[in-house]
């Protein structure tokens, strides 16, 4: 059941292979914070990782862009939009993305794709970015790329983040989502003025650059433990690749059971850095938009494949979208088509040298506003003080390792 929370209490989580994950006491949440678990135990998180790594990452490679609530009819987008609810503020980014100068835009290491199962039960992806947090473990994306707006379930299942994803390659590992945070009004009422989400992730798990082998080794366990890992969840055939049974005579005490022990890749922010955050900013700020757009323009032109990270640049402006009953949005001129672009990061004061800036928007929809059958505008929720309060709560919660 979804509910508004004033205090989030998380249980101590048992880590993979019997190691306990002890967490610091969580802080009080803002009154408008909604929180839902994604993978809240070692076994659950292990199963998520196994699902995406199984069969040479077939589910990662075969995932399709998520296109829920991505295109708004042009005549239903108009100028107007939000007002700040307090003083402007920023949270500084962390990490060192690069050095030297370039005439080209140096793409951020923080950006990647989130993968999950949609309401149709099939693998899909959106764009997302690593965000500065106390424990270097936070991801930001569109709310509808975390919360299930298509069915009565709270969150999308088997949720992971892969920074720098490209055709099955996971250069910094995969990061299983632990806890999701959004505005209460989006979680409960699907208020698209609040279409954003922050997700704490466990430490990464390693895979190889070529998308085939997986770092790790077999760990001998009891039969009872083996059955817990093998039979958890729905996708047993894929997960069975990471469990094995060596019989030594029917039902004898010498039977041996094994599960796969993934290798810890470390914390997300330590590996790729984390973008800062800017809120209550004036309209008209110049931002870079980074994401993985895919799909066609309304005229059928297939401009983007979704396979590589793309960018656009422009000044923000206030907007409303009656299609989505959203009146407090910001827009930016961008040719990103809707499929896959959801969750694209809008970075203010982006440094081409450090590859870091301040997150000031997340694409939640696109539109052709001049009627020429080409997408020309991306839309985002306005980052105000309520968003900052939700971010603060998520950014101070620990996740730990599942390896």
TrEMBL record:
Keywords: Signal. Residues 1-29 form the signal peptide. Residues 79-103 are annotated as: Disordered. Coiled coil: none annotated. SUPFAM superfamilies: Trypsin-like serine proteases. This is Peptidase.
């Amino acid at each position: 059941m979804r509910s508004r929370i004033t205090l989030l209490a998380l249980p101590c989580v048992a880590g993979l292979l019997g190691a306990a994950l002890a967490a610091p006491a969580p802080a009080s949440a803002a009154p408008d914070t909604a929180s839902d678990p994604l993978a809240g135990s070692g076994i659950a998180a292990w199963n998520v990782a196994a699902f995406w790594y199984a069969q040479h990452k077939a589910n990662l490679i075969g995932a399709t862009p998520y296109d829920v609530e991505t295109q708004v009819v042009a005549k239903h987008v108009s100028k107007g939009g939000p007002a700040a609810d307090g003083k402007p503020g920023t949270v500084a980014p962390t990490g060192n993305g690069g050095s030297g100068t370039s005439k080209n835009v140096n793409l951020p290491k923080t950006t990647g794709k989130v993968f999950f199962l949609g309401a149709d039960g099939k693998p899909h992806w959106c764009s997302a970015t690593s965000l500065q947090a106390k424990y270097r473990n936070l991801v930001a994306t569109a709310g509808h790329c975390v919360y299930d707006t298509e069915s009565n379930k709270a969150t999308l299942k088997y949720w992971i983040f892969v920074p720098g994803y490209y055709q099955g390659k996971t250069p910094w590992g995969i990061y299983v989502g632990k806890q999701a945070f959004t505005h209460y009004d989006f979680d409960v009422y699907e208020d698209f003025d609040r279409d954003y989400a922050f997700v704490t992730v466990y430490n990464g798990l390693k895979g190889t650059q070529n998308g085939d082998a997986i770092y790790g080794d077999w760990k001998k366990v009891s039969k009872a433990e083996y059955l817990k890992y093998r039979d958890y969840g729905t996708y047993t055939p894929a997960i069975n690749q990471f469990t094995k049974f060596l019989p030594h005579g029917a039902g004898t005490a010498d039977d041996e059971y094994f599960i796969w022990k993934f290798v810890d890749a470390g914390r997300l922010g330590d590996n790729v850095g984390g973008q800062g955050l800017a809120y209550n900013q004036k309209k008209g700020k110049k931002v870079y938009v980074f994401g993985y757009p895919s799909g066609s323009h309304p005229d059928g032109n297939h401009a983007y494949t979704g396979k590589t990270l793309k960018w656009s640049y422009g000044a923000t402006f206030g907007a409303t979208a009656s299609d989505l009953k959203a009146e407090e949005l910001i827009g930016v001129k961008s040719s990103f088509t809707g499929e896959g672009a959801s969750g694209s990061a809008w970075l203010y004061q982006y440094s081409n040298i450090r590859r870091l800036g301040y997150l000031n928007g997340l694409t939640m929809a696109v539109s052709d506003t001049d009627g020429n059958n080409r997408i020309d505008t991306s839309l985002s929720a306005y980052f105000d003080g309520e968003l900052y309060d939700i971010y603060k709560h998520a950014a101070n919660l620990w996740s730990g390792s599942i390896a």
